[in-house]
Amino acid sequence: MNELSDLDVGLEIIFISKIANGHINKISFIDEMKVINKDKNKLTFSCDITIKNAGAYNYAFRLFPKHNLLPHKQDFPLVKWI
Questions:
Q1: What burial class does residue 13 get, using C-beta atoms within 10 Å of its C-beta: 0-12 exposed, 13-18 middle, 19+ buried?
Q2: Rounded (10°) CA dihedral 19, 28, 34, 75
Q3: What's the burial of 19, exposed, middle or buried (CB within 10 Å: 0-12/13-18/19+)?
Q4: Which helix (H) or strand (E) holds 72?
Q5: Fewest Cβ atoms closer than 10 Å to its Cβ: which of 8, 15, 34, 50?
Q6: Please, which residues bridge with residue 58 across strands?
Q7: How many CB atoms lie within 10 A of CB 11?
Q8: pLDDT higher than threshold 80 for residue 45
């Protein structure tokens, strides 16, 4: 994290449901993960997820900057899809 604090970044998990032919159907779930551990330059995130519907899902993690002057997390050209 170097000079950044845990308040300067956010991490989201995003689930997207798929239809039978494998095409993306819709975003089913987005949740900002919580920092559970800070160790020097590393942060550990966690979340609890309850899936309400069975099926095939794609998922991704999105790391983004957080700051009071940013109205949207996409307004800064530093979004990392993991």
A1: middle
A2: 100
A3: exposed
A4: none
A5: 50
A6: 16
A7: 19
A8: yes
